[in-house]
Write a structure and sequence with these properties.
The complex is a heterodimer of chains A (270) and B (251). Chain A is mostly helical and 270 residues long. Chain A contains eight helices and no strands. In chain A, helix 3 packs across helix 6 and helix 7 packs antiparallel against helix 8. The mean pLDDT of chain A is 93. The chains are: A mainly alpha (270), B alpha/beta (251). The structure holds adenosine-5'-diphosphate (ADP) and magnesium ion.
């Protein structure tokens, strides 16, 4: 079958091409939705209570998940750093390493990944099923605006809640690390905290705060955008949900690298 | 019963990608009438209704309502149109996170300054009209399909729109609920300050019961439009075949 091979490649490139076009369309769509939100944000009516409701939902749905993950991560990192550095007599650096790693990277990234999975999927499923059951159309048909009623409350709530969750994760993670360091490596809590606080600079907190804001905007907009374009009934909702979790996770990982790189350029670590 | 034109669709063209759905749809809605719009499934009936409240933009053509072309209006100007034209979605499209009461209150809260008591009174009145007294606190999921459609109709008319658009209101209903919904449509038409209604359906027997005039959508155009009597008595072989075919399918 000599002419089978080329056809396969043909198909492959066609798929690649359409995926590429799809990504560009998606990026443009999310960007456009962001612009729409900015415009609608400053025009009445304002649905403040809807935003507050969403903040509670996001907080309640993710807090335990974030707390447990942070505690476990902090503890395991303390173990790894502790025994890893033992060979070089570097155990005294554990508090510093842990604090920096958490505030700069682990806190923002892990919390955002968890929220992307938990909240991003939730928003997509909810908005997606509203779309396939014509509830989004109904919002418009009743003379109201889905950007205002659906997108903006979810966007604001995620942008406000995710940094707060990140700060909590930082505390819990470092606390977990401290417990392990005290128990396993025999350092005192006082020493641990002194070293941890010494290591951190204002810029680290700034970065640790900026990242979750960027990720939150992307998670909420992607979830709403994809939700409002969901068709094909229940199966469509499932597909959209999976797609959003995968896409936001990749975005978080990749953009974390570039954000960090950019930050180091602007503000070199000593 | 019918009077002057209150809504007019002229030369509407609409395609989705390569698929030409409308190729010059034109018809008028008269004051006080129920106009039934027949067509097989996928012929673009819903798209017509959606275009009438600006949920869909035609590629060409005009939709005149109160001296303005709906096809040219932006989202902000459409708010006014959407308060005056009520859309009854095929399956109700109720907000499933809200109770029946909150669904019905939604348009009132958004578009009126009514006090809470007045809103409650109005909701009670509507629930009475649709035969669902006392279901204020129920969630849509606990209602049957027929009940959801009736609540959807109540929500669409609670602001007393001038025109009501019904998208397949009887589809999927048993004969009892179909009858009930048709009675509700007649009742709605008699009460309030309604000026007209468009009843999209492929349920021809039902349409004949309530419609003053009938339009048949075929091949992207209005193939025939006339009073219900004239359509029934039409000599046009296509119209006859259509009615006969659809009528047996409807039974
Ligand atoms: N948003 C859309 N995108 C693509 N095609 C659509 C869209 N809306 C409707 N169509 C197509 O237009 C045609 C008419 O749809 P519709 O008005 O829903 O038919 P019906 O007469 O059954 O109500 C169908 O073939 C449908 O696939
Ligand atoms: Mg339809």
């Amino acid at each position: 079958m000599p002419n089978r091979q080329p056809r396969k490649y043909d198909e492959y490139f066609k798929r690649l091409g359409s995926q590429f076009v799809g990504s560009i369309q998606f990026a443009g769509g999310v960007f456009g939705l962001g612009l729409d939100c900015m415009r609608e944000l400053v025009r009445p009516p304002f649905y403040v209570y809807l935003t507050i409701e969403q903040m509670f939902l996001i907080g309640v749905r993710s807090f335990l998940l974030v707390a447990v993950t942070a505690l476990a991560t902090g503890s395991v990192m303390a173990l790894q750093f502790g025994y890893g550095l033992q060979k070089f007599g570097g155990q005294l650096y554990v508090p510093k390493l842990l604090a920096l790693a958490f505030v700069r990277e682990m806190g923002p990234v892990f919390t955002s990944l968890l929220v992307a999975a938990r909240i991003g999927s939730g928003i997509t499923a909810e908005v997606g099923s509203m779309n396939v059951t014509q509830q989004i159309d109904a919002i418009r048909a009743l003379g109201t605006n889905p950007i205002k009623r659906i997108v903006i409350p979810r966007l604001l709530a995620t942008v406000i809640t995710l940094p707060i969750l990140t700060v909590m994760a930082n505390f819990i993670g470092i606390f977990g690390g401290m417990l392990v360091t005290v128990k396993e490596l025999g350092q005192t809590p006082d020493f641990f905290f002194q070293k941890a606080v010494e290591a951190l600079r204002v810029s680290d907190f700034f970065m640790g705060f900026l990242k979750p804001v960027v990720f939150a905007i992307f998670i909420a907009l992607t979830a709403c955008y994809r939700g409002m374009r969901t068709s094909g009934g229940t199966k469509g909702v499932g597909d959209s949900t999976t797609w959003v979790v995968v896409t936001t996770n990749i975005f978080i990982m990749v953009s974390d690298f570039f954000l960090t790189k950019l930050f180091i350029l602007v503000h070199p670590y000593q | 019963m019918s009077g002057e034109t209150i809504l007019s669709m002229q030369g509407i063209h609409k395609s989705f990608g390569p698929k030409k759905v409308h190729q010059g749809v034109s018809f008028d809605l008269h004051d006080g009438e129920i106009l039934a719009l027949f067509g097989g499934s996928g012929t673009g009936k819903s798209v017509i209704l959606r275009s009438l409240i600006g949920l869909e933009k035609p590629d060409a053509g005009i939709i005149m309502f109160e001296g303005r072309d709906i096809a040219q209006l932006g989202e902000d100007d459409l708010i006014d149109v959407r308060k005056k034209i009520g859309y009854v979605f095929q399956n109700g499209a109720l907000f499933d996170s809200m109770t029946v009461e909150d669904n019905l209150a939604y348009p009132l809260i958004e578009h009126t300054d009514l006090t809470n008591e007045k809103i409650h009174a109005r909701i009670a009145e509507m629930l009475d009209l649709i035969g669902l007294k006392g279901s204020e606190k129920l969630l849509p999921a606990s209602l049957s399909g027929g009940m959801q459609k009736r609540v959807g109709a109540a929500r669409a008319i609670i602001l007393e729109p001038k025109i009501i658009l019904y998208d397949e209101p009887t589809a999927g209903l048993d004969p009892f609920n179909t009858h009930r919904l048709l009675e509700l449509m007649k009742l709605i038409q008699r009460t309030g300050k309604k000026n007209g209604a468009i009843f999209v359906t492929h349920d021809i027997p039902s349409a004949f019961q309530v419609a003053d005039r009938v339009a048949i959508l075929y091949n992207g155009k209005i193939h025939a439009i006339d009073t219900t009597e004239n359509i029934k008595a039409s000599k046009d072989p296509f119209v006859q075949a259509f009615i006969a075919g659809e009528e047996t399918r409807g039974l």
